[in-house]
Specification:
The protein has about 240 residues and is of the alpha+beta class. The protein is built from 4 helices and 16 strands. It has a 4-stranded mixed β-sheet, with no helix packed on it. Strands 6-3-2-15 form a 4-stranded antiparallel β-sheet. The chain has a 4-stranded antiparallel β-sheet with strand order 8-9-10-11, with no helix packed on it. About 40% of the residues are buried. Bound molecules: FE2/S2 (inorganic) cluster.
């Protein structure tokens, strides 16, 4: 199957009113791709409080499948929604910005769209860093050291540098102000899950002993990347 056939175009529910004024081709793309609702929980299985996230710490959970990693970040300031291009024929979509009380919490699939590099328990070549390190083009970016793709988490994971042709896929979070909890419910932008499972499914099965395509359950454990992955490579 052609790579582009895997690309799925979605947009945010938060842009409903906005999409009504747009041409039909754009409006058709203005939809998130819904999956099961998954509450983010801590190591003890308790609902994670958004306000307890430490800004600029690289957190990780799995969604919408048990084996697909997602970066969770509190950027320390509001992330404003914006329009993005998913590359190729995928067109434009609107990322809604940050979640949480301060609109500073964002989540993105931790699968580099160039060659599908992703964090594992052994090593992570892709990670968030508050400072640019040696090869970064700015502070506060997600950097994949395989070919130096860099993404801006404050701008919907737009590509800042490197050969990637599309942003990281956004994961949409709903925030309950009363309980301060976060629930993942959809992806937004081009997804590469079929390619990911096609390339790594066997490894993921032997690594975890689980069906990698199993959907995430109703609760997802949030890790610090430094605890989840033994070696986080910086470049
Ligand atoms: S796979 Fe991420 S930059 Fe090459």
């Amino acid at each position: 199957m052609n790579r582009r056939s895997f690309l799925e175009r979605t947009c945010t529910a938060g842009a409903v009113g906005f999409s009504m004024a747009l041409p039909p081709t754009y409006a058709a793309q203005a939809r998130p791709r819904s999956y099961g609702r998954t509450l983010l929980v801590d190591a003890a299985g308790q609902a994670l409080r958004a306000s307890k996230l430490t800004p600029h710490v690289n957190y990780l959970f799995h969604y919408p499948y048990a084996a697909t990693p997602v970066f969770l970040l509190d950027l320390g300031k509001a992330a404003v929604g914006q329009s993005l291009t998913a590359g190729g024929r995928s067109g434009v979509y609107h990322w809604p910005g940050g979640s949480g009380a301060q609109h500073s919490v964002v989540a993105y699939c931790a699968i580099c769209p160039y060659k599908l590099v992703h964090p594992s328990a052994d090593v992570s070549l892709i990670s968030y860093r508050a400072d640019r390190a040696r090869r970064g083009v700015q502070n506060g970016l997600i950097h994949c050291c395989a070919d130096h793709c860099q993404f801006d988490p404050a701008q919907g994971a737009a590509v800042l540098a490197g050969p990637a042709q599309q942003p990281l896929t956004a994961v949409l979070l709903s925030h309950d102000p009363a309980s301060d909890t976060l629930t993942a419910y959809a992806t937004l932008g081009a997804v590469l899950f079929d390619e990911f499972f096609g390339k790594f499914g066997g490894q993921l099965t032997s690594r975890n002993g689980l069906d990698p395509r199993a959907p995430a359950s109703g609760r997802a454990r949030v890790w610090e990347l430094s605890a989840y992955s033994r070696n986080s490579v910086r470049c």
